[in-house]
Amino acid sequence: MDYKNLLAEIKRTALKAGALELEHYNAGTSVMEKKDGSPVTIADQEAELMILKDLVALTPDIPIVAEEEAAAGNIPDISGGLFWLVDPLDGTKEFVRRSGDFTVNIALMRDFEPVLGVIYTPVADELYGGYGNEYADLTIGKETRQIQVRNVPDEGLTVVASHSHSAMEDLERYLTGQKIAGTTFRGSSLKFCQVACGEADIYPRLAPTCEWDIAAGHAIVAGAGGQLHCLDGSPMRYGKAEDGFLNPFFVVKS
Q1: Number of structural domains, the chain?
Q2: What is the pLDDT of residue 188?
Q3: Within this chain, do residues 11 and 130 fall inside the same structural domain, yes or no?
Q4: pLDDT tens for residues 221-239?
Q5: Which among 115, 136, 158, 169 has most CB atoms closer than 10 A?
Q6: Dist. CA 200–CA 182, nearest whole Å
Q7: Structural domain for 127, as ranges
Q8: Each residue of 156-182: pLDDT tens digit?
Q9: What percent of the chain has pLDDT over 70?
């Protein structure tokens, strides 16, 4: 599979979905509630339909697991380990709060591992991509540059944590004994991007996530030379349809 060319195609899809979301973001949109109590907007739904149409045209034989489709009970057979994971609008709460920290997330899984990922943040117009544990980049406007994780500075770790699930006591407990230079807070999958860009060193996730929330970020961090693993050190397992695609807690490191 030609990941380089595929990455370019998926970036185009993410840009289109992000432009649609930005229209709703600027105009304002009503918020609905899904069965699990989480929020959803027409922007989530329309962006997902757009992404699904593009992916079906591009790779008709690869099944797609998408957040809103999964919420409706539409889950394809992914037993072969090759499938797409799509979160059309990661950070719906941030979208509704108008913080700007929401993203389009698209990831390709192979043998149940993320091998390609794209994250686009429409408000900041930042487009991240990565593949194959070997390459990651950031595009702002017409300029694209390769990105890499950094070595931890002498002054200590920069921690990035979630706006919505900061759980500071748990975070402080997890980081006990480590030299910390500072902590920043971001919404959605932008926390992965900060590690991949060398702007942060560690992102402990001590709150629930689903696979479509993290797969694209995992691929980009891996492409930039970083790592993601469960808190016990084991690799993250994907394709957990029997568990509702829920993840155990994990940590992202440079």
Answers
A1: 2
A2: 87
A3: yes
A4: 999 999 999 999 999 999 9
A5: 136
A6: 9
A7: 3-146
A8: 999 999 866 557 888 999 999 999 999
A9: 98
């480590």: which residue's tokens? 178
Domain boundary among 146, 172, 206: 146
Name the one residue in this structure whose structure tokens are 């900060």: 194
CATH number at residue 11: 3.30.540.10
Residue 123, CA distances (Å) to 103, 212, 228 in order? 9, 21, 27
Examine residue 152 and state whether it is found in any structural domain, yes or no: no
Mean local confidence (pLDDT), 129-137? 96
**Separation CA 137–CA 128 (nearest Å):** 6
Q: What is the pLDDT of residues 109-128, one digit of tens each?
A: 999 999 999 999 999 999 99
Q: Please say whether the beta carbons of 31 and 1 come within 8 A.
A: no
CA distances to 121, 170, 172, 205 from 167, in Å? 24, 6, 9, 10
Beta strands in 17-100, from DSSP E residues, in sequence order: 31-33, 39-41, 64-66, 83-90
Distance, in Å, from the CA atom of 83 to the CA atom of 106, rounded to the nearest integer, reads 11
